[in-house]
Design brief:
The complex is a heterodimer of chains A (495) and B (97).
Chain A: E1 3-4, H1 9-15, H2 17-35, H3 40-67, E2 70-71, H4 80-107, H5 113-130, H6 134-152, H7 159-190, H8 195-204, H9 210-227, H10 235-242, H11 245-270, H12 275-298, H13 303-324, H14 326-355, H15 370-373, H16 375-389, H17 397-411, H18 417-443, H19 458-476, H20 479-487
Parallel strand pairs in A: 1-2
Helix pairs in contact in A: 2-3, 2-5, 3-4, 3-5, 4-5, 4-11, 4-14, 4-19, 5-6, 5-11, 6-7, 6-11, 7-8, 7-9, 7-10, 9-11, 9-12, 10-11, 10-13, 11-13, 11-14, 12-13, 12-18, 13-14, 13-17, 13-18, 14-16, 14-17, 14-19, 14-20, 16-18, 16-19, 17-19
Chain B: H1 2-22, H2 26-51, H3 54-84
Helix pairs in contact in B: 1-2, 2-3
The chains are: A mainly alpha (495), B mainly alpha (97).
């Protein structure tokens, strides 16, 4: 076991090695992307190079995981939680780049820097999940967000994309201000931005300090916007609908995952001893998010908006992990995140294939009779829907994800029985819209004007196949994932 | 001194929030966001008189990030202006459920 002393600059740099490697690689690729004329070939070449870079960074992360390093006090955490979250984020980025290579070619987007922007956003996310200091949290959030604002408006020919990007930018910047003000007030109440020090000082500080309480409330608002929890979710459906579909998948999976991971770490390291103060606020946010997300999703006709509301509902399920606290909460959280990422990417990949050039076919009704035309595609989509629903066997790993989340809720120090019941009830409601998609695909006659959807690109096919196979295989043999999630816990200093 | 500075910062932040909520021009909303950021900066500077330089370091980070955000934000506003010939959010409503 290696121990890193973060007060020594060289060791601090070493502790950030995967993040720095990714940033440096992205800069080189950015130069390459900007050097020559835009063309489809260059876009694809940069895409392939970006995917290779993702794999290399994942190898570095794997090396650190194997090293099993620990850290002294400082702004950066090194624990299983960080490495596993990094791997999930890199998996999501890899899949997004694969999807956008085909998508960009179809939509005539030749900007090769779209892949590099994804890498830069991912570097921000990796910084975010490692952050043990509120300054680094803020930097991570912003590196991530600024890149994703551009990605949302990547398709400059589409006025919908421009509108989505504008809404995302204005509300994102607005929410960042709340996050920042929350940080300022927590700093004012405790005199530190380091999570470990805040954790030590909140108790002696007198937990009823109004500055601390308002600061925590503002942090909940800021993080709530980033993870799209009700009542801070208004931007999500519009932005998800307007953005290019691969970017939507990236926002629904990676952006949400990284913000959530940081949310969890801040709450577990800085505020575990003032549980009583924030317990009810987050309980209600989780409850309302589950109910509203699922109920509104029922009414959606557009598949991207439906998946947007479904991702809001999943934010509600993930909030349960924050309330569950402790190692149970963080491992259930990572397990859920892994399952959710696979299913989300699969579902959006199918949406990419079926929407056709110019994103014409985005209604759920356009999926009618897919089973008779493209049985494999319909079968995979059914797996993704059932996985998001948490259906046993056919939903594969999605079932175990919900199972462990419920277990974490019931086994936590203060059992969350009501919330667990609500989680199950709202999951039943969610069957209404997930199974509706399956029903439309398998039972209804073909309705599209041109009955044959275009053939998917090679990479898109691979993403769909890999996601479906992984969901089903891990649904039968969940042990390796469970073991990884169990060992990936947040290790606060000195507790 | 600290109390006055924090009160001023809270007032500026509130003006920013109200501005974002009631104005419909994208540029003005963006200006209100900048006002909110600078209100927070004021808090940090005031607090760092008591806690040391951490808060001032934070202000530099915030200013740098705000500059990057402004570059991206104005580019997005230009791109929507090219499509719609307006930056008024009341006229920008293609995306509806």
């Amino acid at each position: 076991m290696t121990k890193f002393d973060l007060s020594i600059p060289s060791q601090l740099t070493a502790a950030l090695a995967p993040d720095i490697f990714l940033m440096a690689g992205a800069m080189v690729l950015l130069l390459w992307a900007a050097w020559g004329r835009e063309s489809v070939a260059r876009q694809r070449a940069v895409g392939v190079a970006s995917m290779v870079l993702c794999v290399l960074v994942a190898a570095v992360v794997g090396y650190f995981m194997w090293l099993d390093a620990t850290v002294g006090p400082g702004p950066i955490a090194m624990d299983g939680f960080r490495w596993t979250a990094d791997l999930i984020l890199l998996l999501a980025t890899f899949a997004t780049i694969a999807l956008s290579m085909d998508y960009n070619e179809r939509e005539g987007i030749t900007a090769a820097e779209s892949h590099v922007l994804l890498l830069l956003a991912t570097s921000g996310m990796m910084v975010l999940v490692s952050a043990r200091d509120l300054i680094i949290v803020f930097l991570g959030v912003e590196i991530m967000s600024v890149a994703v604002y551009i990605l949302a408006g990547l398709n400059r020919r589409s006025d919908r994309a421009a509108e989505g990007a504008l809404k995302y930018f204005l509300l994102g910047a607005f929410s960042t201000c709340f996050l920042l003000y929350g940080i300022a007030l927590v700093y004012g109440a405790t005199g530190s931005t380091n999570l470990t020090e805040i954790g030590e000082r909140v108790v002696g500080n007198g937990a009823g300090n109004p500055m601390l309480l308002i600061g925590m409330a503002l942090l909940v608002v800021g993080f709530g916007f980033k993870v799209a929890a009700v009542p801070f979710h208004m931007w999500a459906p519009d932005v998800y609908e307007g953005a290019p579909t691969p970017v939507t998948a990236y926002m629904a999976a990676a952006v949400k995952a990284a913000s959530f991971a940081s949310f969890l770490r801040v709450w577990m390291e800085a505020f575990p001893d003032v549980f009583v103060q924030w317990h009810y606020a987050i309980w209600w946010v989780a409850a309302i998010t589950m109910v509203v997300g699922n109920l509104v999703a029922l009414a959606q006709k557009n598949i991207k908006r439906m998946l947007a509301y479904s991702s809001i509902a999943h934010a509600g399920y993930l909030l349960v992990a924050i309330l569950a606290r402790g190692n149970l909460g963080s491992s259930a959280f990572l397990f859920y995140l892994f399952a959710y990422t696979l299913a989300t990417f699969g579902a959006f990949a199918v949406v990419v294939v079926l929407s056709d050039r110019g994103d014409r076919y985005l209604k759920i009704e356009d999926y009618a009779g897919l089973w008779t035309v493209r049985p494999w595609l319909a079968g995979s989509m059914a797996v993704f829907m059932l996985a998001l629903l948490g259906f046993p066997i056919f939903g594969g790993i999605g079932f175990f994800a919900k199972w462990y989340m419920l277990q974490a809720a019931l086994d936590s120090i203060t059992p969350l029985t009501n919330l667990a019941v609500l989680l199950v009830l709202t999951s039943v409601i969610s069957a209404g819209y997930y199974l509706h998609v399956v029903l439309v695909m398998f039972m209804k006659p073909v309705s599209r004007a041109e009955s044959e959807p275009q053939l998917a690109g090679r990479l898109t096919q691979w993403v769909i196949a890999a996601a479906a196979v992984l969901i089903l295989v891990f649904g039968i043999f969940p042990d390796p994932v469970v073991r990884l999630a169990r060992s990936s816990v947040i290790v606060p200093i000195g507790r | 001194m600290l109390a006055e500075a924090l009160a001023l910062s809270a007032a500026l932040f509130t003006i920013g929030v109200v501005g974002v909520l009631i104005r419909r021009n994208a540029i003005i909303i963006f200006m209100c966001v900048e006002l909110m950021l600078n209100a927070v900066n004021l808090s940090f500077v005031a607090l760092s008189r008591y806690y040391g330089a951490d808060g001032q370091v934070f202000v530099f980070f915030v200013m740098t990030v705000a500059a990057a955000e402004a570059a991206v934000g104005l580019a997005i506003i230009i791109s929507i202006f090219r499509h719609r010939k307006t930056v008024n959010l009341q006229n920008i409503n293609l995306l509806r459920g």
